[in-house]
Design goal:
By secondary structure, the chain is of the alpha/beta class. The protein folds into two domains: 4-112 and 272-287, Nucleotidyltransferase, domain 5; 151-265, ATPase, nucleotide binding domain (Nucleotidyltransferase, domain 5, 2-Layer Sandwich), CATH 3.30.420.40. It contains twelve helices and nine strands. The protein has helices spanning 41-58, 81-87, 102-110, 151-166, 174-181, 187-196, 199-203, 206-214, 218-240, 253-257, 262-265, 275-287; strands at residues 4-10, 15-20, 26-32, 69-75, 96-100, 116-121, 125-130, 135-139, 246-249. It has a five-stranded mixed sheet, with helices on both faces. β7 and β8 form a beta hairpin. It is elongated.
Length: 292
């Protein structure tokens, strides 16, 4: 019997799965809890296992069908060497399983398997380039050390700037005044909030920053321009490895495009597919190399 293709997109917010037959016909889709194998390995593996179970249940397939299933899992945090070592012990029932990062399967989906690059800019950021034979990864080391061009970094800069303006170290603007007003114009309130803030919390001010920039706010404009410059710095080495094709993905992909230099914007292409379509494509390619 022909192989089944199972793709997993495991991210920090949720885990998604897709099951198809060898001709690409959709059999089932499922969604589960967070699956970042760096931050919560055991919980991530449990979430992935539940999604796989749900896929076979939805498709009304017997347990034996797993023995002819090719799994490609793209997992947030799988770029960390120690995590890769732990993942070697994850051996779900299947014909074969292949592990990637979530950004690698996003790259395969965005360019339908052809050479190209992606830069994912949401709460965090990470890039990947595919030259036709190998992936190159850039970034993806977390809010404290990395995530250039991301919503979390942009939001943190906005709040830092608002505090500077509140203390009259730099001139205030309508944006900085609104930001501080949301913390009762109290540096202490901002400090208390910051002690527990997650990257997603820092990023919540981003829509307000973009709106201010569109209205010509001096600080809003400078913040968005700095975010765009960070993205340019990250995508240039990706472009050099990807035959010049770049897809931006994530929540900031659309609003930032108008702020990118013309030469970079001219190289952007729309994603042809999502991360799960990339995982299924890779699974199909790998299935052709397996013994009959």
């Amino acid at each position: 019997m022909q192989s089944l293709m199972l793709g997993i997109d495991g991210g920090g917010t949720h885990c998604r799965g897709r099951l198809t037959d060898s001709a690409g016909r959709l059999l089932a889709e499922a969604k589960g809890g967070p699956a970042n194998v760096w931050s919560q390995f055991d919980a991530a593996i449990a979430a992935i296992g539940q999604v796989i179970d749900d896929l076979f249940t939805q498709a009304n397939l017997p347990a034996e069908a797993r023995d002819r299933t090719v799994i490609v899992a793209g997992l947030a945090g799988a770029n960390v060497a120690s995590v890769q070592t732990r993942l070697a012990s994850w051996q779900p029932r299947c014909q074969a399983r292949y592990l990637f990062t979530d950004v690698e399967i996003a790259c395969a989906g965005a360019h339908a398997g052809a050479p190209g690059a992606v830069f994912i800019i949401g709460t965090g950021s990470q890039g990947a380039a595919w030259d036709g034979a190998h992936f190159t990864l850039l970034g993806g080391w977390g809010f404290a050390l990395s995530d250039a061009g991301s919503g979390a970094i942009l939001g943190q800069r906005a709040l830092r700037l608002a505090l500077l303006a509140h203390e009259e170290i730099v001139p205030a603007s309508a944006l900085t005044q609104r930001v501080m007003a949301s913390y009762q114009n109290s540096p202490e309130q901002l400090l208390i909030w910051s002690k527990q803030a997650t990257p997603a919390d820092w990023g919540r001010v981003v829509p307000e920053v973009f709106a201010a920039a569109q209205q010509g706010d001096e600080h809003g404009t400078a913040l968005v321009q700095q975010c765009a410059a960070d993205i340019v710095q990250m995508v240039q080495p990706l472009l050099a490895r990807s035959h010049g094709k770049l897809a931006l993905m994530g929540g900031l992909a659309e609003p930032i495009q108008a702020w990118l230099p013309a030469d970079i914007a001219a190289l952007l292409v729309p994603p042809q597919g999502d991360a799960l379509s990339g995982a299924i494509r890779l699974a199909t390619q790998f299935s052709l190399t397996l013994p009959a």
